[in-house]
Amino acid sequence: MILKLRNYFFAGILVTAPLAITIYFVWIFVNFVDSKVTKFFPDFFFSLPIEVPGSGLLVFITSMILIGWFTASFLGRIIVRFGEKILSRVPVIRGIYTAIKQIFGTVLKKQSDAFRQVVLIEYPRKGSWAMGFLTGSTKGEVQKITKNETVNVFLPTTPNPTSGFLLFIPKRDVRPLKMSVDEGIKMIISAGIITPSKKNKKD
What per-residue string of b and e applies to 54-90 under the rule 16 or more CB within 10 Å gives b? Predict the structure, then answer.
């Protein structure tokens, strides 16, 4: 009887914990956006009799859609090009703006392949393997000074895959995996607790 109750308890935890944690982080995100966005709009935008969670997020999304619609127009493109031309003349700001624009352009473009494939590399020593993401072929000055064909591999940290290291590795030393990028991210976030199904694993 006690064993059954124990199993039921852990089954309940298994069902409710992921949902509760997800709702918690979504709630934090919505409140964070609300607290930041509402500062930039007049009070009458949010003059409702009751406080509605997510109203700031809704205004933010609507604003981004309207800005995107405007910049897609002829006048909008002219204004954007003019603004970028001014920024390109400022030494320090030019580098920061260009880098950020390229990153967002890569991540947000349709069918983004920013993380193209999950790979294994020998790191940090021979015989020890680490999971990373192939982000492309090495080009420019870095490729010129290397002796072999080199690829870019992002090596994320656990449990936060948004931070990590950029490594330039000879293509022949990279072992591609069959698992999807989503499965690789889940495995990293869970510190290896969640692994892909056998049908996706490399034979």
Answer: bbbbebbeeeeeeeeeeeeeeeeeeeeeeeeeeeeee
Q: Give me the CATH topology for the region 117-200.
A: SH3 type barrels. (2.30.30)
Q: What is the pLDDT of residues 70-83, one digit of tens each?
A: 888 888 889 888 88
Q: How far apart are CA 101 and CA 148, in angstroms?
A: 30
How many angstroms separate the CA atoms of 35 and 30, rounded? 9
Give the other-Cβ count within 10 Å of 196's Cβ.
Answer: 18
pLDDT digits (tens, 9 = 90+) for 109-150: 544 456 789 999 999 888 999 999 998 899 999 999 988 899
Cα separation, 27 vs 24, whole angstroms: 5
